[in-house]
Design brief:
Layout lengths: L32 E3 L2 E4 L4 E3 L7 E6 L3 E6 L5 E7 L4 E2 L10 E4 L3 E7 H6 L1 H27 L2 H11 L9 E4 L4 H7 L4 H13 L3 E5 L2 E4 L2 H8 L7 H10 L4
Antiparallel strand pairs: 1-2, 2-9, 3-8, 4-7, 4-9, 5-6, 5-8, 10-12, 11-12
């Protein structure tokens, strides 16, 4: 089975959502080993593929999971980046119409759909996770339709932050520059210019091995919702507020 190339996936760690105590059942795919009720899988492990039975839900920790759909031209369209601790694998059909791959070595829990729905507590959790996924995909669609490139980039970075975050902090960038540009519907050059501008404005800092340093969480979130613009006035204000040394 084909795996995503190394350039697409980098280590991705984030604050996790606490998982349930449901017993894990082994994923069907190879290269997985059991460890204390979870299945250890390597980076770029194909968790499920297009056409596989959609009879299980999954939870990954500590790495995120890339959800994508192969195209007829041999490329891959990124649909979502599932944060650690979030459930995924939902489908309204009996089979998957997309694929999922681990962004880094991680532990995977797999829950049978029938088992989940038979227990009130786990069925409630599944409903909450499905609603969360719908809201996230809706936000992604909205961002792609009407936002500027810097707003789409800021929203992507902000989505990698835990709910409670203080700066400076570091978030994972589980995609290469090229794949991130495709995901944000822009070009690599435009993406690089906007990241450089956010660096000059001291919103983000160093970028190293798939990690991005966030220097100002509030400014990032304001950029993400379009409440402020990354223009000359914003840069002058940021320079004026910077400590003099």
């Amino acid at each position: 089975m084909e795996s995503l190339p190394n350039s697409m996936i980098s280590a991705a760690e984030d604050e996790t959502v606490e998982a349930t105590d449901l017993p894990a059942t082994a994923p069907r795919r190879s290269h997985a080993s059991r460890d204390e009720g979870r299945i250890r899988v390597p980076a770029r492990h194909k968790i499920f593929d297009v056409g596989d039975p959609a009879d299980r839900l999954y939870c990954s920790s500590p790495a995120s999971v890339v959800i994508f759909r192969p195209t007829s031209a041999g490329h891959k369209t990124i649909i979502d980046i599932v944060a650690p601790g979030r459930w995924f694998g939902f489908s309204n059909r009996h089979f998957h119409d997309c694929a999922a791959v681990s962004a880094a070595p991680t532990q995977l829990s797999a829950f049978g759909v029938g088992e989940v729905m038979a227990q009130p507590s786990s069925s409630k959790r599944a409903f909450e996770e499905a609603v969360h996924q719908i809201e996230r995909l809706r936000k992604i669609a909205t961002i792609r339709l009407g936002a500027t490139t810097v707003e789409r980039l800021a929203a992507f970075l902000a989505a990698q932050l835990p709910l409670v975050a203080t700066a400076p902090t570091t978030v994972a960038m589980p995609l290469s520059r090229r794949d991130l540009a495709d995901h944000l519907a822009t070009t690599v050059e435009t993406l690089a210019r906007n990241m450089a501008a956010m660096g000059r404005a001291a919103v983000i800092g160093k970028q190293h091995r798939g990690d991005v340093e966030i220097l100002d969480v509030d400014a990032l979130r304001l950029l993400a919702i379009g409440a402020t613009k990354l223009d000359a006035d914003f840069l002058r204000e940021r320079e004026a507020r910077a400590p003099q040394g």
